[in-house]
């Protein structure tokens, strides 16, 4: 197999996704020791570096506890929806992989000129046309987040505009050839009763806000999202080490 960085990264990602799927299916139970590095190398026919990269990814997601000298163990993450804060993934995909059924309800959508703040974040002229979408994100029918998204329409496929906000934003951007490869995010704790809508709107309005700009592989900003995750319904994990 090729040992180029791109190939190795891709292999590690696929390995991490396969082990993650096995954890989510219950094949590897909470507290259970995963196969050793040597066993994973043999099973997947990859290098030890690839295995270690995949395990570190799972550790960053809060799914695996790496105990040096002992092995890697499945974390007991309960029934909550958990994601690594440094991950750039579709929220719907994360919800599904945690064993829940994702859902989406579009509250509003509007084609309008970009505000000065939006233009600065997206790197477009003030007044350029954008599509603003407000969505409720659900897991098993329960609201777990409210997202306010702004997508610049310059160069966006006209036939896909109506799909924005009806399902996964990442899925629509991917279909448009604009799948985000990185994001610049700010994280804030928010208490605001004006956020959200509907009978599931939490009271009081306590949220973890991810205010982020998504960028394509070419470096252009493809969306600005302010996603308010309902406190207690969505957990974020940050891996810290010395």
Q: Can you describe what's shown?
A:
There is one protein chain. The protein is α+β, with helices and mostly antiparallel strands and 242 residues long. Helices cover 26% and strands 33% of the residues. The chain contains six helices and ten strands, in the order αααβββαβαββαββββ. The protein has a six-stranded antiparallel sheet. A two-stranded antiparallel ribbon has the order 1-2. Strands 3-10 form a two-stranded parallel ribbon. Strand 5 (129-139) and strand 6 form a beta hairpin. Helix 1 crosses helix 3 and helix 2 crosses helix 3 (48-60). The protein is globular and about 55 Å long. The two termini are 33 Å apart.
Strand order across the largest sheet: 4-5-6-9-8-7
Q: What is the overall silhouette?
A: globular
Summed over residues and divided by their number, the pLDDT gives a mean of: 87
Number of beta strands? 10
End-to-end distance: 33 Å
Rg value: 19 Å
Helix coverage percent: 25-40%
Poorly predicted runs:
1-8
Helix count, DSSP H or I runs of 4 or more residues: 6
SSE pattern = HHHEEEHEHEEHEEEE
Strand content: 25-35%
Structural class: alpha+beta
Largest sheet: 6 strands, antiparallel
Which labels suit this protein?
about 240 residues, six-stranded antiparallel sheet, 6 helices, alpha+beta, globular, 10 strands, single chain, two-stranded antiparallel sheet, disordered N terminus
Quick summary:
The protein has 242 residues and is of the alpha+beta class. Helix content is 26%, strand content 33%.
Ordered list of secondary-structure elements with their pairings:
Elements: H1 5-25, H2 37-44, H3 48-60, E1 64-67, E2 71-74, E3 81-84, H4 91-97, E4 102-113, H5 116-122, E5 129-139, E6 142-152, H6 169-175, E7 182-191, E8 206-215, E9 221-230, E10 234-237
Helix pairs in contact: 1-3, 2-3
């Amino acid at each position: 197999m090729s040992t180029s960085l791109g190939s190795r990264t891709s292999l590690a990602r696929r390995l991490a996704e396969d082990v993650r799927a096995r954890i989510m299916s219950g094949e590897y139970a909470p507290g259970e020791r995963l196969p050793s590095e040597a066993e994973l190398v043999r099973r997947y026919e990859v290098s030890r570096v690839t295995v270690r990269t995949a395990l570190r990814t799972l550790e960053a997601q809060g799914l695996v506890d790496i105990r040096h000298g002992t092995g890697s163990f499945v974390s007991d993450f309960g029934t909550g929806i958990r994601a690594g804060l440094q991950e750039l993934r579709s929220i719907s995909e994360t919800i599904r992989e945690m064993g829940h059924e994702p859902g989406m309800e579009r509250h509003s959508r509007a084609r309008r000129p970009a505000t000065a703040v939006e233009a600065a974040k997206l790197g477009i002229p003030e007044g350029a046309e954008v599509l603003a979408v407000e969505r409720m994100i659900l897991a098993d029918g329960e609201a777990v987040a409210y997202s306010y998204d702004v997508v610049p329409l310059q160069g966006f496929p006209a036939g896909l505009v109506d799909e924005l906000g009806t399902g996964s934003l990442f899925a629509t951007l991917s279909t448009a050839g604009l799948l985000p490869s990185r994001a610049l995010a700010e994280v804030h704790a928010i208490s605001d009763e004006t956020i959200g809508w509907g009978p599931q709107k939490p009271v009081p309005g306590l949220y973890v806000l991810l205010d982020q700009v998504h960028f394509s592989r070419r470096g252009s900003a493809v969306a600005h999202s302010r996603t308010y995750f309902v406190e207690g319904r969505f957990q974020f994990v940050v891996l810290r080490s010395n």
